[in-house]
Specification:
- The protein has about 450 residues and is an alpha+beta fold.
- It has three domains: about 170 residues, no CATH class; about 100 residues, Sandwich (Immunoglobulin-like); about 130 residues, Glutaredoxin.
- Helices cover about 40% and strands about 25% of the residues.
- The chain contains 14 helices and 21 strands.
- The strands form seven sheets. It has a five-stranded mixed beta sheet.
- Strand 1 and strand 2 form a beta hairpin.
- The radius of gyration is 24 Å and the shape is globular.
- The relative contact order is 0.11.
- The N terminus is likely disordered.
């Protein structure tokens, strides 16, 4: 991140509040009063040319948005300090005979346990290697009575953190979000973190609703732009609140969990700075090791690094490798037939390819986590067989071997390589403008 990008992380609290008042809605006015009563400061860590600086910004909503298809990690990390947990509790007004607990007993291996409710009481027992995120829910499936229930609207769903030892929970049917869990320090830390953002949660929900309504009613562009600015500021506020919490709580397993969750969205310098601040114990935790591995991968595939020389089989069976294209600019497109944002961006890629194909430019599409038949059908349907296409067939990594070499954890991701084989650009999502600008500069 250069100096010009630092300003993207700075936003004025009073200006946000002033803009909020302009909407004059009952919900917003109530939220504005909450904001006025709860002013605070948080820190965003941003990189400059040679060091990190702390920028004080306004404290706004913590909310996490994903515009790309996010890739989950499946790291099998050996653990030798597993311990037993017992989760007992009571539930009021239960309508189902069972409660369900979903968690990882071993990294990458997810369990779904059930407990029969007897006299409004339940109990779970299991083994975990360290404090572990779990899901407690009353309905066993996300589809109930033929309807898909999103986690954010599921009244009988809550995330908790299990710890070794004995814990006790108090749960209420149709109000799982009010669940009280005793005996888990990590869960208490998650609650404290969530309280920092809870005052602003309604602000985000209201803005999202207003944006949706504005789109349906074809509101004026100036109104939509104003709402969008506030929406974007809420996202930056999320980054600020969570980064501040991680920095202030370096010995927390919850901090490692959050850093792992956001590692793909924050600048690498930010992730590294926060990781370096973690205690040795937390760095060696499951989530800590994932972040550490991510940093090492990302540094090896950062802009300025030499590109990893992969190989693969083209659609027609021809063997190709990246080094075959030395002397050309190569855009590597990590995508999948299953990834909607990837395929939505293909028409734009076709435009770029037709514009630059006669200027020492090539595209290599790498289908990740894909299968042969849907991959071939997607290439044909999207008409992208005009450039090179291979599929990552590595079974051990579930089709992610090449992606891991390039520190790709979300799709689509595009990487531009110059004639010497050096990485000169990375683009997550469908970031058209920056890609177009770099191509225009290099291939003029």
């Amino acid at each position: 991140m250069n100096c010009s990008q630092v300003s993207e992380y700075i936003f004025n609290y009073d200006k946000i509040l002033e803009q909020l008042y302009s909407f004059k809605t009952k919900n917003n006015l109530a939220m504005e009063q909450q904001i006025t009563n709860q002013k605070a400061t948080v820190v965003v860590f941003v990189s400059t040319t040679s060091r990190l600086k702390k920028i004080v910004v306004g404290h706004v909503l913590t909310i996490c948005l994903f515009a790309s298809c996010i890739l989950g990690s499946n790291n099998l990390i050996a653990q030798d300090k597993a311990g037993t947990f017992i989760l007992s509790g009571t539930i009021e007004n239960a309508e189902n005979p069972y409660l369900y607990l979903l968690y990882e007993s071993t990294p990458g291996i997810r369990l779904k346990d059930s407990s029969r409710i007897v006299d409004n009481k339940f109990q779970f027992k299991g083994v975990i290697p360290e404090p572990t995120k779990a899901i407690l829910r009353e309905n066993p499936h996300v589809i109930v009575n033929g309807k898909v229930i999103a986690d954010e609207t599921n009244l009988n769903f809550v995330g908790i953190f299990l710890e070794k030892g004995t814990m006790n929970a108090r749960v209420v049917h149709d109000d799982f979000k009010s669940t009280k869990l005793f005996g888990s320090k990590t869960h208490n830390e998650s609650v404290r973190h969530n309280e920092l953002r809870s005052l602003f949660q309604e602000q985000y929900i209201a803005l999202r609703g207003q944006l949706e309504l504005a789109g349906l009613t074809k509101s004026r562009k100036v109104q939509i732009d104003s709402l969008t600015r506030l929406y974007d500021e809420a996202i930056r506020g999320m980054m600020a609140v969570t980064q501040k919490f991680i920095y202030d709580n370096p010995d927390s397993y919850f901090s490692a969990y959050e850093l792992r969750s956001y590692r793909n969205m924050w600048p690498l310098d930010t992730v590294k700075y926060l990781f370096d601040n973690l205690s040795p114990k937390i760095k060696e935790s499951i989530d800590g090791k994932v972040v550490g591995d991510f940093i090492r991968e990302a540094e090896a595939a950062a802009v300025g690094s030499m590109a990893y020389d992969f190989s693969g089989m083209e659609l027609d069976g021809e063997a190709i490798k990246l080094s075959d294209f030395r002397g050309k600019f190569v855009l590597i497109d990590f995508w999948g037939s299953w990834c909607a944002p990837c395929r939505e961006g293909n028409p734009h890629l076709i435009e770029l390819y037709n514009l630059y194909k006669d200027r020492n430019f090539e595209i290599i599409g790498i289908a990740s986590q894909d299968k042969e038949e849907p991959w071939r059908k997607a290439v044909d349907k999207d008409k992208i067989g005009i450039w090179k296409n291979i599929i990552d067939r590595d079974q051990v990594s579930h089709g992610l071997a090449i992606a891991h070499k390039y520190a790709v954890h979300s799709f689509p991701t595009k990487i531009l390589i110059d004639k010497r084989g050096k990485i000169i650009g990375r683009f997550s999502g469908n970031d058209r403008k920056k890609l177009e600008e770099l191509l225009a500069k290099q291939l003029k």
